[in-house]
Specification:
Elements (H helix, E strand, L loop, with lengths): L7 H12 L6 E5 L5 H8 L3 E6 L2 H12 L8 E4 L11 E6 L22 H10 L3 E12 L4 H8 L3 E10 L4 E9 L1
Parallel strand pairs: 1-2, 1-4, 2-3, 4-5
Antiparallel strand pairs: 5-7, 6-7
Helix pairs in contact: 1-2
Length: about 180
C-alpha cells in the first residue's frame, strides 16, 4: 500500500477550504494521506486531529507537520475513521476519500468501492456522532462516483450541498458540505 500523493483533488480541496473556511476551531481530518491538507488546516489556525489507516502515511504527515508551524501541531491517530473519538467533539470534519469506482479494493488510497462511495459512506457514518450539534462535514467526490446513491443514503439524516466544482479532462471534482438535519 502506498501513501496518497498530492494530486488535483488535494489541491482543489485546499483551495475550497481557503475560499469556504470550516466553522469552529477543532477539525478532524479522516485519512491524512500525504499530510498537505493537515498542514494547510494547521496553518489556517485550526486545532487538527488527523486519522490515517496507513502508518507510513501517518509518519509522512507527522514529518510534514514537524517542519511546519511548531506552535500548532496536529494530533495524529492511527485509525480508519472517527470511531476512536467520543460524541460531539469536532466542529468540522474533512475527508478526501478514495472515490474511484472499483469492484475490488486493491489500492486503499483511490479505490472507493463499487459505486466509488462505499468507503466514504463508512467514513461518514462513523463520524456523524463525533460532530458538535451544529458541526459540518466537508468531503470530495468525483463525477465518476455514484453521487446520487450517496444523496439517497443520507436523505433525512444529512443536508448535502455542493459548494465547489472543478472540471478536469477526465472527471469533475465536487466538494460537498454536509450538515445534520
Amino acid at each position: 500500500m502506498t501513501v496518497y500523493e498530492v494530486s488535483d483533488d488535494t489541491l482543489f480541496l485546499i483551495s475550497t477550504l481557503k475560499e469556504y473556511p470550516l466553522p469552529g476551531h477543532v477539525v478532524l481530518e479522516i485519512g491524512t494521506g500525504n499530510g498537505l491538507i493537515t498542514e494547510c488546516l494547521t496553518r489556517m489556525g485550526y486545532s487538527v486531529i488527523g486519522t490515517e489507516i496507513l502508518l507510513q502515511a501517518l509518519s509522512r504527515t507527522a514529518s510534514r507537520s514537524a517542519t511546519g508551524i511548531r506552535q500548532n501541531q496536529p494530533f495524529l491517530v492511527l485509525s480508519e475513521s472517527a470511531r476512536a473519538f467520543r460524541n460531539g467533539v469536532f466542529d468540522s470534519i474533512i475527508i478526501n476519500p478514495p472515490y474511484l469506482p472499483s469492484v475490488d479494493i486493491n489500492d486503499m488510497a483511490i479505490d472507493g468501492g463499487v459505486g466509488g462511495i462505499e468507503i466514504l459512506e463508512n467514513m461518514i457514518r462513523s463520524s456523524i456522532s463525533s460532530l458538535v450539534e451544529d458541526g459540518e462535514m466537508r468531503f470530495l467526490l468525483s463525477s465518476r462516483s455514484d453521487s446520487q446513491a450517496l444523496w439517497d443514503r443520507f436523505e433525512g439524516l444529512l443536508h448535502l450541498e455542493v459548494i465547489s466544482r472543478k472540471k478536469l479532462f477526465f472527471e469533475e471534482l465536487i466538494v460537498i458540505d454536509a450538515k445534520r438535519i
